[in-house]
Amino acid sequence: MADPITVQVLRNKIAGLTDEMHYHFYRSGYSTIIRESRDFSCVILDKTGGLIVAPPMFFHAPVYKHLVGRILELYGVDGLADGDVFVSNHPYEGGLPHVSDMAFVAPVFFGNLLVGFSGSIAHKADIGGTNPGSTSASATEIFHEGLLLPPIRIYEAGIYKDDLERLILANSRQPDLVQGDMRVGSPGTELEFAL
Amino acid sequence: MVDVITTQVLLGKISALTDEMHYHFYRSGYSTIIRESRDFSCVILDKSGGLIVAPPMFFHAPVYKHLVARTLELYGEDGLHDGDVFVCNHPYEGGLPHVSDMAFIAPVFAGDMLVGFSGSIAHKADIGGTNPGSTSANSTEIFHEGLLLPPVRIETAGKPDADLERLILANSRQPELVQGDMRAQIAATKMGIDRIGELCARFGADVVTDAFTAILQRASVELTRSIAALPDGISEAVGHMDDDGVEHDRPVKFAVKITVTGDAITFDFSDSDRQAKGPVNLRPSMVEACVFYSLIGCLGPDLVFNDGMREAVKFIYAPRTVTNASLPAPVSSYQKANLKLVDVILEALAYFKPERAIANSGSSGSIAISWLGGGREGQSNLQYEIFSSAYGGGNGHDGCSAVATHLSNLHITPIEILESEYPCRITEFSLIPDSGGGGEFRGGLSFRRTYELLQDAMVTRRYDRARIPPKGLEGGADGHASRFVIRAGSPDEEETPASGRYALKAGEKFLLECAGGGGYGDPGRRDADALAEDIAEGRVTANAAERVYSKQ
Fold it and tell me: How far apart are the first and last CA of chain B?
């Protein structure tokens, strides 16, 4: 059982490192959505997806629990490997606000022990769908709003799935911006591996 | 070097094994698109993607070469493993007709040697996009037409990528149909791998690949020889579609200039319209399909297509035209554009071989009905049908009635299947008298179908030839224009353009009439017995006989 002082120190460490994740993501973003609007969040979660420190984009805070819940349902704790990174933008599969918001979550292991997850959600410039920019004022089905990504692996035990990136970019009207922001989003997620 | 008898035996083997692939896929399909329309193809390719035996769905034939070339460009021959399966539906990355057509290709190895590829393409019930059923009459970007899959691996060295399958299904309104059809298609593709493996074990991999080369070379030589027999010259033709589904007051122009010099032939499409705003754009793979189909039809049906024929034909395109579109131009309604282009190419080719001339045919259309009440219990809520039409009259023969024309070799869905699986009644299905253009050789008759809706529905109709009917040739009359009438028989009855999307209510009816074939030659010269038989059989009414066929 950790004493209250250590708990408070660690709580501040987590707050400090999520600030660091935010700062680096913000400074590395390609689209104005990241580097001006700052429409993203970075978080640390416990091993069931419980959020530890809320991000400035507060409404992302309760999303992560749903997303990790679904990943664990699909893959099981035993199906996760060190170096995995999952991607999802699916409102019905991962609780994301809309498909423009793309989430990355990665399990954090200490030895063989699953400690928690690192995660981020960021709005993408364009992910297909009926309108340029993907967001819509008059869509009548989610299929009008762009590419749907249920939780799937984009890194598998440290190996990047180029095919999946190519697929995602093929569905975007702004592949350069999306690629730049995606690549920032997943290493941003990895920052805390040094923890 | 392989001897000619072994080559012929192997050609027969490849032909039979692709039949086997087709049969098994057809019997395993989940959607009516597979098990009724048969909107798919299965093939065997050499190691550069050269097609060995053309499938019944002829217009898929030239696609595979583009797809394999792009796959090799992305992965390199060294990047392919035994047990890999690639998936792609991308018109601009893989040459696919539209995103609804999903291709699988798998390399075939004998030991460490790449022998060739097994492949298949099949239409999927729904792959997302703006409309249920994914196909569109008025999309303005390819991003409206559904999920885009560039060539990616769905199995790596025998291990299926469950994540990718889940991603694809998440983007479909009909995940069960798509999953069933995808798995059947992958199985049919693997059947090709097994059978080629058996041939390599029996004949030797070197003999099999040498036979591939010999088969392709022979087709090139045969085509070149047939072209050499044509007179030298230049022939041009132009034709128009009603519109592109978006700019409704603007016909879409297709133009070809054919030049024959000795044994060389060139098809120049530079004068075709700029790329359309609506989904009637073609990729070069489709233009190639139209050219090879028309060439074989003109030169002689004993010629058999394979990719060796590319050696004998030169293509010229202008950039960003309807015959050579660029991203993100929409392509969903490519088939009616194909069939207009075939009419135009055949008209130009008639100059070189008048005895094979044929008037315009009735093209091909489709409807997608999204049943808003959920459809019938336990059945899909998406009804997707592809319609045939009728052939034009030719120099020496009447046009065939109520049949899929030219390279759209599909089957009409039977009434019994429709009524048992979907909440509709077909209250009329009949040939339309006088719909074949009059001529010495009459155009084929088209047909009418009337649907009574038992639930509310969103109906997407994609067709052509309501405003510009199939043209007659050499004095023959035009064929019957197509019609689509919504709320038929009610006070709100409305005649619509050839393409559109309509919200209809339970109890309402719509009727569709496909376009008839154009006539060939002066109707006044029609054989009196043939005309008498037409009247007796009800193909031509007495009134029309008087009006159209009276001797001047």
Answer: 64
Distances in whole angstroms, Cα of residue B511 to Cα of each of B253, B426, B465:
28, 10, 16
Phi, psi dihedrals of residue A155, rounded to the nearest 5°: -115, 135
Q: Which helix (H) or strand (E) segment is B44 a member of?
A: strand B40-46
DSSP H helices, B2-85, are: 4-28, 32, 63-75
Instruction: Tell me the two tokens of residue B374.
Output: 């959920």
Task: Give A162-194 as a 3 state SS string.
Answer: HHHHHHHHHCCCCHHHHHHHHHHHHHHHHHHHH
Distance between B35 CA and the closest CA of chain A, angstroms: 26
| A-chain residue closest to B153, CA distance | A163
Residue B493 and residue B510 in contact, taking contact as beta carbons nearer than 8 Å: no
Q: Identify whether the C-beta of residue B488 lies closer than 8 Å to the C-beta of residue B511.
A: yes
> Is the bond preceding B328 in cis, omega lying within 30 degrees of 0?
yes
Asked if B426 and B449 count as a contact pair (C-beta separation under 8 A), the reply is yes
Q: What is the rounded radius of gyration, in angstroms, for the C-alpha atoms of chain B? A: 23
SS3 per-residue string spanning B276-323 = CCCCCCCCHHHHHHHHHHHHHHHHCCCCCCCHHHHHHEEEECCCCECC
Buried b (16+ CB within 10 A) or exposed e, B50-75: bbbbbbebbbbbbbbbbbbebbbebb
In sign, the C-alpha dihedral spanning B519, B523, B525, B529 is: positive
Task: Map tokens 């394999």 to a residue.
Answer: B68
Alpha carbon of B274 to those of A112, B143, B268: distances in Å? 61, 20, 15
Please, which residues bridge with residue B239 across strands?
Answer: B254
Per-residue model confidence as pLDDT tens digits over A66-100:
999 999 999 999 999 999 999 999 999 999 999 99
**Chain B residues close to A93, C-beta within 8 Å:** 170
User: Hey, is B452 helix, strand or coil?
Assistant: strand
If DSSP codes are grouped into helix, strand and coil, which group holds residue B210? Answer: helix
Contacts of residue B413, Cβ cutoff 8 Å, sequence gap at least 6 = B32, B36, B37, B385, B386
Strands B483-486 and B494-495 turn out to be antiparallel
Could you tell me the residue range of the domain that residue A104 belongs to?
Answer: 4-192
Of A129, A152, A173, the CB nearest to B163: A152
- Cα distance from B288 to chain A (closest Cα, Å)? 25
Look at A149 and B173 and tell me if their CB atoms are within 8 Å.
no
Contact between B117 and B208 (Cβ < 8 Å): no
Number of domains in chain A: 1
This prediction's pTM? 0.94
Q: Is the pLDDT of residue B232 over 90?
A: yes
Closest to B370 in 3D by CA, of B89, B38, B97, B125: B125
Taking the C-alpha atoms of residue A154 and residue A159, their distance in angstroms, rounded to an integer, is 8
Chain A partners of B150 at a C-beta cutoff of 8 Å? 166-167, 170
Report chain A's terminal Cα–Cα distance, integer Å.
Answer: 20
Candidates A90, A141, A163: best to mutate against B (most CBs of B within 10 A) is A163
The residue type found at B78 is D
CA distance readout (Å), A82 to A115, A190, A193: 11, 11, 10
pLDDT of B409: 78
Residue with tokens 């990528």: B161
CA distance B150 to A167: 6
Contacts of B149 (CB under 8 A, 6+ apart): A167, A170, B87, B88, B89, B90, B99, B102, B168
Q: For residue range B8-52, what is the model confidence (pLDDT) as tens digits? A: 999 999 999 999 999 999 999 999 888 888 899 999 999 999 999
Q: Do B153 and A129 touch (CB under 8 A)?
A: no
Q: Provide ipTM, 2 decimals.
A: 0.93
Determine the 3-state secondary structure of A52 from DSSP. coil
